[in-house]
Amino acid sequence: MVVVYTKERDGQPSEVFRTEVVLNSLNPTWIMKYTMTFQFEVVQTLLFHVYDVDTQFHDIDVKMLKLDEQQFLGEASCVLSEILTRPNRSLTLDLVQKEDSTLSSHLRHGQLVVHAEECISSKTTTEMILRCSDLEHKDLFSRINPFLVISKTVESGIPISVCKTEVLKNDHNPIWKPIFLNVQQVGSKDSPLVIDCYNFNSSGKHDLIGKVRKSLADLERLRSSGEGENFFSPTAVGHDHKKVLKSQLFVDKFSESIQYTFLDYLKGGCELNFMVAIDFTASNGNPRLPDSLHYLDPSGRLNAYQQAIVEVGEVLQFYDSDKRFPAWGFGARPIDGPVSHCFNLNGSNNHCEVEGIQGIMMTYTSALMNVSLAGPTLFGPVISTAALIASQSLANGGKKYFVLLIITISRKQKMP
């Protein structure tokens, strides 16, 4: 059995899922899946613990199993981004045990293959144009200002609104602007929907004109046939009794399209390239003084620039396959040189790339020791240099999306 944890903001693991128990197998494949929301801007750390469940517990629900009564076989961890950036969205992890750090590093506890897939239903979007004919209104002397509300019905029977059209004034035969419904919003194409037609009232107490109950599949069939569906009005007798109205709902357009997601681009071979540029102007303060934004605290506490590098870089690094990042500084005077508005953070005259986020941190620290803060604050040279790298990649047929992080001081708040 595998127990899956996610790491909370405080770094503590929180159990979210247990697989089924696979009996008597040294090469088990688990069937049960866990659905989680992918958040690009968050480092989503996953922790996997593998257990051998004793025979006496095989008939017990996995949720009721006490883990300290099972044999711990090993653990592995990764970030969700690492799985999603693999071409087949599968990642192989070595299982380890904590006590291995004091023993031989050659101990093996097997491997765990983790696979992720995106929910297909979230990509399909339906576009519809709805119209009505001969709308009736109980008050013959007032104007009719109709609008539609589309709702889905949850298991409890409560309708949940998913879409609303605009209000059309004084129109008994309204045609509304196109509406867009994501299939995931309604559950599935065959999930029942309730379409309510109301007469708008400025008091907020809108008058119900009529109802139609149809699924997306039914509405597609209405479009194909060109026929209309009569509205009905519930009666006071009961839910099974209804008055059929002469007013009708028509579907003038019904089309489906796939809305490609960020994950589709990754699967198609596109990758992100991370670049960073750091403000070394004198307005940051003397780096040797604690009130400077560039102050290197002997205690190891990160300054504001280091925090920004880590928080953004740790998210983006997993989408950059070689983890080699162009890193520049601007607004400083290198030793025995004029003020530069785009210099390589690593001190090289030819190469601007550094290895990983740690490489950015190290070269940033080194640069502070080897340049004099100056000014003014000019972004142009850095942006031009980054744009040149991006254009060269495009010319060479690369499928890359470049992200340039410019960290600079806010004049008013004195912070990056």
Please explain how this structure is put together:
The chain has 416 residues and is an alpha+beta fold. It is 17% helix and 35% strand. The chain has helices spanning 80-84, 183-186, 216-225, 262-267, 304-316, 356-370, 380-395, and strands at 2-7, 13-18, 45-52, 71-79, 90-94, 111-115, 124-133, 146-153, 159-164, 179-182, 193-199, 207-214, 229-235, 238-258, 271-279, 324-330, 332-334, 343-344, 353-355, 371-373, 400-407. The strands form 6 sheets. Strands 15, 16, 18, 19 and 21 form a 5-stranded mixed beta sheet that branches. It has a 4-stranded antiparallel beta sheet with strand order 2-1-3-4. It has a 4-stranded antiparallel beta sheet with strand order 10-7-14-13. It is extended. The model is unreliable at 101-105 (pLDDT under 50).
Layout of secondary structure:
Layout lengths: L1 E6 L5 E6 L26 E8 L18 E9 H5 L5 E5 L16 E5 L8 E10 L12 E8 L5 E6 L14 E4 H4 L6 E7 L7 E8 L1 H10 L3 E7 L2 E21 L3 H6 L3 E9 L24 H13 L7 E7 L1 E3 L8 E2 L8 E3 H15 E3 L6 H16 L4 E8 L9
Parallel strand pairs: 15-16, 15-21
Antiparallel strand pairs: 1-2, 1-3, 3-4, 5-6, 7-10, 7-14, 8-9, 8-11, 11-12, 13-14, 16-18, 16-19, 17-20
